[in-house]
Amino acid sequence: MTRPVAAIADSRSHYDGVAKALELIEDQISQGIKGKNKVLVKPNFVTTSRQLAATHVDAVKAILDTIRKYYSETVIIGEGPAFSSFRSGLENYNYLKLRSEYDVEFVDLNEDDYVEVEAFDSRLNPMNLRISKTVVESDYRISAALAKTHDFVIVTLAIKNMVVGSLVGGEKWRLHQGYKAMNMNIARLAKTIMPHLGVVDGYLGMEGRGPSSGDPIQSRFATASVYPVSLDAVTSKIMGFEPFDIVYLYHSNNWKVGVADLRMIDTVGRSIADVARRFRPHPRCRDMLSWR
To answer: pTM of the predicted model, to two decimals?
Structure first.
């Protein structure tokens, strides 16, 4: 059985760290993207008015520069912001220039056609959630996340970025069924839309009241992996959190969706200890741990 690998790099800028992390696993990326028909890059625009809370365009440029070596067709950049419009995020964060520089197509996932996927309500009874059809049909999904604390799941990294942003319109709020159910929903929906490549830009992270109102932390790292569960486990440890305290990672590991046990994950580049930077948790973090 192949052991999952996560790349860790120190970072001098949003572009620098991501580019170095991707270079460490470029052979895996080149093999994975070969022959694919629809490539999606999913940044995080939880809010479209605060850069600290959103994926920096330079991190996405580092991803595009890497995959352009192996994929020449139009790349979709898709997101469904929780607040405000997708267009305002593209404008405020200077993404529009990517259309001419890299041949990309922008898709507002909030307004997309959808497929229904079974999830859990607050009592853990079945309910359906609507997920962007573009995301489901993309055969190479890239989650371009950033390192932030969170008010419901402790940290928000590659998997949560893909899952929550892919829910159309008001479905994002229906996902919030309490700490336990929300984490189970993230793990459940990830089975359908798991990223094929996860990237976390930690050059400038957010601690405290994330995912949108927290404080900056000079964290200066980047991580990447074709094993997103393992990526989120390694990144959460870098941030000072135990992977199995992150409930969606706990379930993903138990449901054999991926590997979150650090003893079973190899790292390349820098070590976790090299770049570790303890993030101040959200004030409600103790409540989020009550599931145990």
So the answer is: 0.97
The letter for the amino acid at 191 is: K
Q: Which candidate, 170, 111, 141, 140, places its Cα nearest to that of 43?
A: 141
- Report residue 12 CA to chain centroid gap: 21
Nearest Cα residue to 262 out of 245, 282, 280: 245
pLDDT at 82: 84
Mode of pairing for the β-strands spanning 39-43 and 140-150? parallel
**CB of 157 closer than 8 Å to CB of 233:** no
Checking DSSP bridges between strand 154-156 and strand 5-10, what pairing results, if any? unpaired
pLDDT of 292 > 70? The answer is no
Name every residue whose Cβ is closer than 8 Å to that of residue 234 and which is 6 or more positions away in sequence: 6, 8, 223, 225, 243, 262, 265, 267, 272
Mean pLDDT, all residues of the chain = 96
Higher-pLDDT residue of 286, 68: 68
